[in-house]
Design brief:
- The protein is α/β, with parallel strands linked by helices.
- The chain has 4 helices and 8 strands; from the N terminus they run αβαβββαβαβββ.
- Helix 1 crosses helix 2.
- The protein starts with 25 loop residues before the first helix and ends with a strand.
């Protein structure tokens, strides 16, 4: 994996927010916390409006919330993809990265290696020869928690509107520094 991040611009379409911002439903984060425990401070580097950070905090975690864009929560203007060091108090990175740069988020998180990384991604992210060669062959996640039902994500500002991508399967991909280069366990998230 290259340690130098690249930052492609999200596609600008009528139906897709320009900054690829889709808030994470609370139950998605709660489902992760039923299955995973984190040590130290959790860094949420794509915190958006704080949806995930607030759930983590409500479960007793100390959370550092940052985002490249200002969505009214956390520290804005922090580009996770350019970070070269990590605060030693950070024990985990937990986020729903913008899909357009999910691979770069994985690469940066694994370079920073806080101990544990959990990213909420499309289940289909596991597919592909290039991703296998660039990520999964040498840095297999310890666990993948697949949602048995589809998760509906709505763009910011459309909380009661029609779902834009409720037809996709999602999963939590969890890297644990004690489990690099080993086989990946698959678990299911049922009705939560």
């Amino acid at each position: 994996m290259s340690s130098k991040p690249t930052k492609p611009a999200p596609p600008k379409t009528k139906d897709r927010p320009s900054d690829d911002f889709y808030p994470t439903p609370e139950y998605v984060t709660r489902a992760l916390l039923k299955r995973e425990h984190f040590n130290g401070t959790i860094w949420e580097p794509a915190c958006g409006a704080g949806d995930m950070s607030e759930v983590l905090e409500s479960h007793g975690y100390d959370v550092r919330s940052t985002d490249l864009n200002d969505h009214g929560y956390g520290a804005a203007g922090v580009d996770f993809l350019t970070q070269t060091a990590i605060d030693p108090r950070i024990g985990a990175i937990v986020t729903n990265p913008p899909f357009i740069c999910a691979e770069q988020f994985i690469a940066r998180a694994l370079v920073l290696n806080p101990g544990k990384v959990a990213l909420f991604l499309r289940l289909s992210f596991i597919e592909g020869k290039r991703r296998y060669r660039q990520i999964f062959r040498d840095h297999a996640p310890a666990r993948i928690w697949a949602f048995s039902g589809r998760v509906t994500l709505l763009p910011k500002g459309n909380p009661g509107g029609r779902p834009k991508n409720g037809f996709m399967a999602f999963a939590w991909y969890v890297w644990d520094d004690r489990r690099f280069n080993r086989s990946t366990e698959l678990g299911w998230i049922g009705d939560e």
